[in-house]
Write a structure and sequence with these properties.
Length: 157
């Protein structure tokens, strides 16, 4: 999937998003239904965009979208767990060194956590921040979330 894109599926599928920089991926998984969802978020808030037509762009609209689509596959909110990946500071702070203003990556992570808390979905794992890009592979057969990086290799959440 691409930036500001989402997918849900069940069974043995693998959901993939590549090239996370400051963007954040939210992975949701219900182990009993073996159903999961993945979204590649672009911005922390619709207020930062003129185009608000795509709910996958923002955490506050993407989380309810994934929950509704996963329910159609038999997933139940009380069994779901979330994992977050991305939110890197790829280019340093545009406001200068030592600035107190958080970068876009950090803002995306904070907004994703807030949207999940509002939906009462616990976050059970994270690989966020730092200064490197990531790609994500959500294996629905077992719920494994593989995070791949050029610099650090693979990590399983």
């Amino acid at each position: 999937m691409r930036v500001a894109d989402w997918a849900v599926d069940a069974g043995d599928a693998v959901l993939v998003t590549l090239g996370l920089g400051s963007c954040v991926a939210i992975a949701l998984y219900d182990p009993e239904a073996r159903a999961g969802g993945l979204v590649h978020l672009l911005l922390p808030s619709p207020a930062l965009s003129r185009d608000r037509s795509n709910p996958a762009r923002f955490p506050e609209t993407a989380v309810p979208l994934l929950l509704a689509e996963l329910a159609k596959l038999g997933a139940r909110r009380e069994r779901l767990a979330a994992r977050l990946v991305g939110g890197a500071s790829m280019f340093g702070a545009a406001t200068g060194a030592g600035a107190a203003v958080p970068g876009m990556g950090e803002r995306n992570v904070v907004a994703a956590r807030a949207a999940l808390a509002a939906a009462q979905v616990p976050v059970t794992g994270e690989d966020v921040g730092q200064r490197h890009g990531r790609s994500v592979y959500l294996h629905l057969a077992d719920g494994r979330l593989e995070v791949r990086t050029v610099a650090r290799g693979s990590l399983v959440l």
